[in-house]
């Protein structure tokens, strides 16, 4: 999944919401979130990600990060695997999710880079979508 839908996405203290329809990965175990380290302000401080199953809106997966995705800040990593909660349930073959991405509230925390996310579950992963 690639998130490049808005020039004002991933700004300091903002929450970005994306609706995606993809193959059903089953119970979500982790997500990989990253950016391509491009743009004048590629460094990004990610607070957390929440993924809501649109077929069962009561089912939310929480992925805390509280870390920089940056070549120049923190530990220098701009790819993060985030472990979330596990709630096993029977799910349909195709699923819709709402992904909320919360950018942290520290100086320089927004990014101009393209941001990617891949959702991993017991049945596989979503892969890169555009």
UniProtKB/TrEMBL annotation:
Lineage, opening ranks = Eukaryota, Metazoa, Chordata, Craniata, Vertebrata
The protein's name is Lipoxygenase domain-containing protein 1-like
**Which PROSITE patterns does the record cross-reference, listed alphabetically?**
PLAT (PS50095)
Outline the extent of the PLAT domain.
1-83, 95-130
> What SUPFAM superfamilies does the entry give?
Lipase/lipooxygenase domain (PLAT/LH2 domain) (SSF49723)
Please indicate which superkingdom the organism of origin belongs to: Eukaryota
The family database entries (InterPro entries) matched by this protein are listed as: Inner_ear_hair_cell_LOXHD, PLAT/LH2_dom, PLAT/LH2_dom_sf
List, alphabetically, the Pfam families matched: PLAT
PANTHER family registered for this protein in UniProt: LIPOXYGENASE HOMOLOGY DOMAIN-CONTAINING PROTEIN 1, PROTEIN CBG12474
């Amino acid at each position: 999944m690639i998130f490049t839908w808005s020039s004002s996405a991933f700004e300091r203290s903002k929450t970005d919401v994306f609706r995606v329809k993809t193959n059903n990965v089953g119970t979500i175990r982790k997500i990989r979130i990253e950016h391509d380290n491009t743009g004048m302000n590629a460094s990004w401080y990610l607070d957390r990600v929440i993924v809501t199953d649109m077929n069962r809106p009561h089912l939310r997966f929480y992925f805390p990060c509280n870390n920089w995705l940056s070549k120049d800040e923190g530990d220098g990593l701009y790819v993060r695997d985030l472990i979330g909660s596990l709630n096993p349930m029977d799910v349909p073959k195709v699923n819709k999710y709402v992904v909320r991405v919360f950018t942290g509230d520290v100086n320089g925390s927004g990014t101009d880079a393209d941001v990617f996310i891949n959702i991993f579950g017991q049945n596989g992963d979503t892969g890169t979508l555009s």
